[in-house]
Structures are given as C-alpha cells and as structure tokens.
Amino acid sequence: MKKSLSIVAGLLLALNSLSVMAQENPDPYANETKEQRDARMKWWREAKFGMFIHWGVYSVPAGIYKGKKIPGIGEWIMHNAKIPVAEYREFAKQFNPVKYNPDEWVKLAKEAGMKYIVITSKHHDGFALFDSKVTDWDVVDATPYKKDLLKPLAEACQRHGIKLGFYYSQAQDWNHPGGAAAGGHWDPAQDGSMDEYIDKIAVPQVREILSNYGPIAILWWDTPINMNAERAKKLIALLRLQPGIIHNNRLGGGFHGDTETPEQYIPPTGFPGT
C-alpha cells in the first residue's frame, strides 16, 4: 500500500513539475534541438512559394471613405481614416461573398506552383472570417453571408494537398475594447483593458482557429503593439494545439518565432536559417 501511494505521489509530483515548467517557459520549441528544428522547418524551406490572402470587411470600402481615396493599404482604412467603431461596423452589412469558391482558389494556387496558403483569420479591424464563439463581430453574426469562410478553405487545402496557415492580429484590434491601435485609440468605444482583451478575445480565438480547422501549418502573428511577455506567453502556449506549426517573429514579448517577415519587399538573399 505504501509503495502504491509512493508511486502515485511521484506521478503527481512529476505532473506538477511539468505544469510549472510549461508556465515558466510556455514556448513549445524552447528546448528544441537543431535536428528537431530542421525536421520541422524542412517543408517550409523547400516550399519557397505560397499565397497570402488579405480579406475582410475592408474589402467593402476598398480604400474609399466618404468619397475620398484614403492613403495607405486598404486593410488599414479604419485606422487611417479614423472611422468610428459603430460606423465601420455598418460595412459588414454589405460583406456578402456569394461567389466565394475556395476550391478554385486552392486549385489556382496549386497550378501556379504554390505550396501553402495563409489567410487573414482576423486582421486589425477585429473582424473574424470564422464563426467565433466569443464575439458577434464575425462573418457569421455580422454579415448577410452568415457562413464560416475558413472551414471550406481548410477542406479544399486538405483535398488538394496545400498547406494552410492563418494570419491572426493578436495585439491590434480596433473594434474590441482594449485592443491595441498604432498611435492610440480614436474612438472611446475602443478603450478598455488590453489584458482583458487578450484573455477574452485573442486567446480564445487563437484556440478556435488552431482547434476547429484540421491541420494548420503556419500561424502568422502581426504588429506586436503593447505586447509584453505575460500577454505573449498566453498565446504562444496555444501552439501546442498544432504540433510542428511554424510561426513568425511578430508575436512580441521576447518570442522570436521561426521566420522573419519583411514588410512590402522580398529580400534578394532570403533569411539564413529560416
């Protein structure tokens, strides 16, 4: 009896130690050997060519606000034109992609020689292209389309042998209270606790996109404004939901990721080691 109790106590102690280690160093690749990293990164280093899809409610104004062309890239129109939250949300009523055919998209990418697709599951405007259970600011609840856009794309990628990645804006979110904004908020509706935003929106949504769409090969973070180590730890720990997933260097909080992400240019010599 004493021996059995000792074994149980030992197992509990070991499990508790693992739990403490995960809390102290949540990065699943923190202790990865060079050989393990090389094996995980092999497909990425060989792929070379993929498709990045920016898509969301910003497709409705398409760079034009109140009859004026807004300088900058289209997905930043809410920020650059300082559009109030309530007004921007009205654009979702016109977002109705009835001609969406992900199978054609994936076949086109494959015919062009691409090996992977990355799509914006949620960009800085906070709008989710999937059916999120933690907000109504998504394609199912806020648009006339009322269908998840990521699920059929994931299924098409699996059918045609194309790896799928999700972009997710973990820090900037101009619609959910507490989300960060480059240069600061412009609408009181954006104000709130960033820690609450991370806990109630970012963490559960990353869990959703890594749990509900089959194999995910890449997670593409973006613009780590106001991110710190504590906030980043909560997110990087979720990578364990997709063993072997590759992520980039924009999470923040001291986590460097697997690959560099140059902005608006292609480096002629690439990045060694990535």
Question: How would you describe what is shown here?
Answer:
The protein is an alpha/beta fold. It has two domains: 1-31; 32-247, Glycosidases (TIM Barrel). The protein has helices spanning 2-24, 34-47, 77-80, 85-89, 102-111, 139-142, 150-160, 194-211, 229-236; strands at residues 50-53, 64-65, 68-69, 116-122, 163-168, 218-220, 246-247. Strands 1-4-5-6-7 form a five-stranded parallel beta sheet, sandwiched between helices. A two-stranded antiparallel ribbon has the order 2-3. The protein starts with a helix and ends in a 27-residue tail after the last strand. Residues 17-22 have low confidence and may be disordered.
